[in-house]
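Hi L.,

You mentioned the student needs an example of a multi-chain input paired with its predicted structure. This one should do, with 932 residues in total across all chains.
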Amino acid sequence: MKINLRIWRQRNTQDQGRLVEYTLDGVSGDMSFLEMLDLLNENLTAQGEDPVAFDSDCREGICGQCGVVINGVPHGGMGVAQPVRTTTCQLHMRSFADGSTITIEPWKSGAFPILRDLIVDRTALDRVIQAGGYISVNTGAAPDAHAVQVNKKRSDRSFDAATCIGCGACVAACPNGSSMLFTSAKITHLAMLPQGQPERMRRVKAMAAQNDAEGFGGCTNIGECASVCPKGIPLESISQLNRDLIASLFKHDGKED
Amino acid sequence: MTATVSSNNNAALADQYWTTGDEIHDTKANHDLPIDKIWTDRQFTSRLVNPANRRKMTVIIVGTGLAGGAAAATLGEAGYRVENFCYQDSPRRAHSIAAQGGINAAKNYKNDGDSVYRLFYDTVKGGDYRSRETNVYRLAAVSANIIDQCVAQGVPFAREYGGLLDNRSFGGVQVQRTFYARGQTGQQLLIGAYQALERQVHAGTVHMHTRHEMVELIVADGRARGIVTRDMVTGKIEEWFGDAVVLATGGYGNVFFLSTNAMGCNVTASWRAHRKGAYFGNPCYTQIHPTCIPVHGENQSKLTLMSESLRNDGRIWVPKRAEDCEKDPRDIPEEDRDYYLERIYPSFGNLVPRDIASRQAKYRCDEGRGVGPKVREIDSDGTEHMRARGVYLDFSEAIQRMGKDAVEKKYGNLFDMYQRITDENPYEVPMRIYPAVHYTMGGLWVDYDLQSTIPGLFVCGEANFSDHGANRLGASALMQGLADGYWVLPNTITDYLADAPKFGPVDEKHPAAVEARQGVESRINKLLTINGTRTVDSIHKELGHIMWEYCGMERNEAGLIKAIGLIRNLRNEFWTNVKVTGVNEELNQTLERAGRLADFLELGELMCIDALHRRESCGGHFRAESQTEEGEALRHDDQFQYVAAWEWTGEGHKPTLHKEPLVYKSIQVKQRSYK
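Structure written out for the whole complex:
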């Protein structure tokens, strides 16, 4: 099939970006969205033009490296026929009609500077984790795995939150550019486990503060984040974060934690 | 030309393609001790570095997956200065994250007779007795610690209602020793290591360099002392220096272009080290995984693995007659179906090991009984054919027996994934599967300390020639990555670092550093100025076709010789006619891929030479000249029970083969049989 593309081209962070139009023939429905871009790039290279830079790695929906805004929706999940929850790499061209026009843009957020074309810098998310998104245990200092029992329901809830792949779609979808869904996923993952308790209050304070420092916006419970999340991180994670954050205001490190 | 080479004259072949050098041995493990004492002995005899001195030492670690991330976190905790590099935008994206199944550990939580020795035994046997006994025993011994560590980090393993960890069996073993986190075990383990790593970044012990690609190794005064990287955003070429270098850069399956690996997985770091003197062990050992979604067309970029657990309930078949292949499978009556695994291997049926299931699927498709879309193939005689490459994995009987709900509960996410990719509903029509390249067991040669043949260069995880022999059992890759990163390397590297205060100074003015940097710059300049007509991907795909056709699941002498010639021609084509757009001083993905392909083109030839010299079938490597009367794989323990460690001797020169004899003192070597 034939697809019309409007793609954000921007040479580097300082460059002024613009949408450039391309027409691509010979697209098959079995191609993934990224394979369609590969085909475009093969054609562009053959013509001596610079190919479109975009991020991808595993192309199995798990590494979180890929991600572009497709027709206004991060990962394109909602703007096309189906499926709803997807990463860009798991979206297939059969979701688009022959002759359709697709607009492709990078994640839009002040905290994610554009590096080139569709590639953005998401290292702010790593710094949010660095602020406290871990359990402090040195290698070799662990007790036997069966020494601590974990309530299965809480364990499952922890797991649901732990499935976050850190792609940043939540930030891109949020009108405020908030990273609250990402941060709350980590908070919930660790808060549901006995191992996560000692640092729980310190963690939530530090991570929330880092969100602000990175320039992510505040959460106003709009819910766009959860609707585009490819892994279905529930909005209630944010409630968990808020509950823990409020609780932390009444506690001080080393005393009542 | 190729057919005239005598098929039983290995000496003549050797003359043409390789030379034979001295034997090589691991000198770090004390083989005189009982196998269960060797690791504790090595830990005790390894010299230590006192905490005050650790601060003065820098360790460079390339890679942030299970092996690299765990090693960086652990050495950072120990107080060393760690410089950690990855090509992705975040260490959390290393390809370890894609592993689905699980991780083995000899915990015996199920009280079903498991033990360190049994895990050791299963792993050596599963690797077709081509792994090193001492290393595998250690892997089994530290496996239990890994689970403890991950649980303490908050890795959400599956649990039972009593709150304790759940286990399942995997890869055909008879005990339940596999710990798992739904179908995302790799992700959860990697996130655990990543969090430990980010904690050290916060503490200032680890400096993280994302979007940096290692493009050269610096070997100064006989020691690995640094690396050269390219900043993938700015193109800046930089030298980094340290007291030791650790490579944890994963496998090289992308030499086949299509594989289950992430798009960025490459061999460059290992290959650059190989060219600087690190021997490459068993390069031809590739694992082919039988249950992947088949190729759909020529623009496909990668293959997706479907969990092997599907074979527990799915039945594999193809139509008995080629003319039925294009029919709707539901219209093919039972008597016209060939359940070929159940027919040939009645006692194991659909659960035969990965190599057998893969090879039999290939044979059915070669016979013209494959199903699904036809893809263009170029045969060894140069003719083009359209051939279907798929076999059915049918759940209709399971759905009748267990009910659709039960099947959905057990395999639902896999069925959804399949439907998303193929647009077919596997509850209604059988899935189509085909083998694909998955994991590489070969890699840089290391001793018991994980040190390569270059002093100060250590290699962890999939990047070393590994503990897996000729074939890797399910749920053991994650185990090796974390074992190496959390436990083995941090305990062995100290013996080397104890000498670090005596190492001379090294900086960017050192001749070795100057040479390394100049090499990188001229290579990049060369790539950018060829300005030919072929795209990088088109050449890579051609290399992939050659490797898959002649060095894939089944090899023979004539085919491998032909492949070597084809690869040499293709390499020439690459260096004279590739088109790399853009400049170095910017984010340039074409340049990145071209640099990696240049190394794959050299590795591909070495893989074929290694496969050529190993005239035996073993693991996933079926050598047509070596089979039993029944057509099954035939190993030759008397001739090939060794690791092939290849030495680089210069461009255009024959590589030198060093053999490391494999000695089995604690385990009895047996022939496999699944009939």
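You could point out the following to them. Chain A touches chain B through 77 residues (CB under 8 Å). Residues 200-214 of chain A form the longest helix (15 residues).

Best wishes,
N.
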